[in-house]
Amino acid sequence: MATISLNRVTKSYGDIQVIPPMDLEIEDGEFVVLVGPSGCGKSTTLRMIAGLETVSTGALSIGDREVTTLRPGLRNCAMVFQSYALYPHMSVRDNIGYGMKVRGVPKADAAAAIENAARILNLTDYLDRKPAALSGGQRQRVAIGRAIVRDPDVFLFDEPLSNLDAKLRVEMRVEIKQLHRRLKTTMVYVTHDQVEAMTMADRVVVLRDGVVEQAADPITLYEKPANAFVAEFIGAPSMNMLEGHIAQRGDGLCFTGPQGLEFDIPAARVAALAPLAGQACLLGIRPEHTNEAEGGIGVAVDVDDIEPLGPHTLVVGHVGSRKFTGQARADTATRPGSRVTIQFDPDKLHFFRASDGAAVR
């Protein structure tokens, strides 16, 4: 069993605590992605699991072993870094097998392990090539192959696709996910790219300043973010946030916001939002739930720019002091400097307390 358990784990550098007490459970065979803005502690957390960073306080276990103070080589974790770190003078075969050679693995066993890894990663035809003759994606596969032959309990990935171009990143995302399905090994993956997180993970852990803001499957993060931070971080383009108030109106509630925005809260949401009556709140609107159609509920947007994307165009502007991105037709006549009304689906709205950003639903 290759479960990973962090129990009140912290990391400090001198008097500066970068990871407050963290509790995190990763199940055997689970693909977990740690995501968050730069400096949020995701790579530090991964390196503590690997043993490359010491744990300041708390306990860390892999499987049924506590490994808090165990050196990296005894943890049976294989790590794949952002840089490929391949030996340029060695063939792909020798790069994959170098670690086994150092450990004294019998040649026949090493050869079989190399062939198996090459087959899994579609590298069989490239085993005798040098790294310089490979594409970026193939080099990263060699780095992954070097990890596979160790037969680890846990795979750790530290932003492994950052050096690849957009097309290769998409291809490698698919390949790593397929690799996980074949090997059924626990994988922990760090990225700052929330699209990578959403498309690859069984479960995403969103970090901010070393704190776990939410840990859930990708769809739950998207549809039911725990707070405004998660809501804005997950999704591309990010969720729009507008400041406003909820007030009582007859037997229901209404929302009033900037630039004349006012609408009745859908009846199905009234009971949940009743505690916010008379209070300030944040209204969350995802760009993909907006359009430029006439009628319905909408907000006036001062347009700063437009971004044609083929099937539709993004209208990028602001509502009062808040940035706002809406979706329009591909042939929209809207131009920078104009004001346009962007409609939105009232059943797709998100509400957050202004005081602490917590979701209300």
Helix/strand class: alpha+beta
Cα separation of the termini: 37 Å
Poorly predicted runs are: none
Query: What's the structural domain tally?
Result: 2
Which fold name is given in CATH as the topology of the largest domain? Rossmann fold
Number of helices: 9
Return the average pLDDT rounded to an integer. Answer: 93
Assembly category:
single chain
Strand order of the largest sheet: 6-7-8-3-9-10
Which architecture of the largest domain does the CATH hierarchy give at level 2? 3-Layer(aba) Sandwich
Q: How many beta-strand segments? A: 21
Estimate the strand proportion: 35-45%
Radius of gyration: 25 Å
- Corresponding CATH superfamily of the largest domain: P-loop containing nucleotide triphosphate hydrolases
- The coarse overall form would be elongated
Question: What is the chain-wise order of helices and strands?
Answer: EEEHEEEHHHEHEHEEHHEEEHEEEEEEEE
Helix content: 25-40%
Reading off the top of the CATH hierarchy, the class of the largest domain is best stated as Alpha Beta
Largest sheet: 6 strands, mixed
Please tell me about this protein's structure.
By secondary structure, the chain is of the alpha+beta class. The protein folds into two domains: 229 residues, 3-Layer(aba) Sandwich (Rossmann fold); 124 residues, Nucleic acid-binding proteins (OB fold (Dihydrolipoamide Acetyltransferase, E2P), Beta Barrel). The protein is built from nine helices and 21 strands. The chain has a six-stranded mixed sheet with strand order 6-7-8-3-9-10, sandwiched between helices. A six-stranded antiparallel sheet has the order 13-12-11-14-20-21. A five-stranded antiparallel sheet has the order 15-19-16-17-18, with no helix packed on it. α2 runs parallel beside α4. It starts with a strand and ends with a strand.
